[in-house]
Amino acid sequence: MINIHLERGKLLLAQKRLADAEKEFKQALSHAPNDAYAMAWLAECYLSGKRYAEALELGQRAMGHAPNDPFLLYTMARAYFYNQNTKKAREMIRQGLQLNPADADFFLLLAHVAFYEEKWQEALDAAEQGLEQDAENVNLVNIRAQALVKLNRKAEAAQTIDYALHKAPEDSYSHANRGWVAIEQSRFKEAQQNFREALRLNPNNEYARSGLKEAIKGENFFYRGLLKYFLWMAKMNEQNRWAVIIGAYIIYRVVLGIARNNPALAPLTYPIIALYVLFALSSWIAVPIANLFLRLHPIGKHALTEDEKMGSNIAGGLIGLSLLSLAGYFISDAGQLLFLGLVFGLLLVPAGGTFSVSEGTKARRSLTIYSLALAAVGIIGALVPSLGSWLIIVFALGIFAYGWVANYLIGQDAKAF
């Protein structure tokens, strides 16, 4: 017998009317409390609403009634994945593929799990296995392209995206993917066109919106080098990224030691030291400053969120206060203004880093507190001579440590859905 409430709920879920769909699924369960299929659909509704813990709890209850149902295994795999338990997600996928080896959706989910774990080759292999079962699956084609980009196989990625768009020319995600491939190839004008088309098809496509901003900023010569660095780092897994960060710092310390212990060689080391310091600072301050320029762009200004605009305003304000303080120092020779100018300038680092993190996240809250504390210490240290010496030292140490703290917090936060 067809469960009318269940069928109606599935239709409402497809229309993204989550509250109405939830009511229908619960009505279906009121008539059949042990219906694992209805529980699975209600869990899918919870997953769509980002109620991941509830979805997992409901799915576990459903498993007691139908442990070998492929649809329930798929739902459970997704629930474990979104609850950041990739080991259990893989277990559910393995069981599902044992029951139905030709189900492309399981391979797609496996590719997403591997991508999340930064295992690019495994993600590519899973996507290709899925495409052997369903060659027309545009989602599999897209994740195959993304894996190819991470593996630095850009030409193959471009061909893959062309195929996806041939199969689904109105797919917003495929147009956005093509834009990101164009960015990888430094074809920024073409990338902008791709992202604009993706946003025309789906104005809520944040993947395309963020790409559009990067494509516009990439036309700036000074930002372009940093963008290439960001893209290069994004191709590494977390361990290798930390190896690069720590390795660069060790080289900097070695070169600094050479400069201190060998005065004759010191002039040769200064460019390396200056380059490291400039790069370390610019990796945090470039984004809000680039957003300042983006606000002057006829298209780019519409791509910025209110939060990004606030970040660029704060960056502009800190630059202005720094320049005013330094100008006051040169006019009056007041040492406090010199320190104040340096404090405002260096505060661009925590300000830029904080606004590079999404609103509402744990990392954003932690970095906001860190940044405000640094600002208070630095400004008081510059303005109160009796406290200045040790507060300025604390401020300098805080600025130095910011990059390490922020990289850790951002890395942890990036794993959350």
Fraction of residues in H or I helices? over 70%
Class by SSE composition: mainly alpha
The largest sheet is: none
Low-confidence stretches: none
Distance between the termini: 38 Å
Work out the number of β strands.
0
Reading the helices and strands in chain order gives HHHHHHHHHHHHHHHHHHHHHH
Radius of gyration: 26 Å
What is shown here, in short?
This is Tetratricopeptide repeat protein. It contains 22 helices and no strands.
Task: Give an overview of the whole structure.
Keywords: Membrane, Repeat, TPR repeat, Transmembrane, Transmembrane helix. InterPro entries: TPR-like_helical_dom_sf, TPR_2, TPR_rpt, Ycf3/AcsC/BcsC/TPR_MFPF. This is Tetratricopeptide repeat protein. It comes from Phaeodactylibacter xiamenensis. With 417 residues, the chain is mainly alpha-helical. Among the domains are: 101 residues, Serine Threonine Protein Phosphatase 5, Tetratricopeptide repeat (Alpha Horseshoe); 78 residues, no CATH class; 112 residues. Helices cover 81% and strands 0% of the residues. Helix 3 packs antiparallel against helix 4 and helix 6 packs antiparallel against helix 7. The chain is elongated and about 80 Å long. The chain starts with a helix and ends with a helix.
List the helices and strands and how they pair.
Layout (H helix, E strand, L loop, with lengths): L3 H11 L3 H14 L4 H13 L3 H12 L6 H13 L3 H14 L4 H13 L3 H14 L4 H13 L3 H14 L4 H13 L3 H14 L4 H12 L3 H14 L3 H24 L4 H29 L5 H4 L2 H27 L2 H12 L1 H7 L7 H22 L1 H29 L4
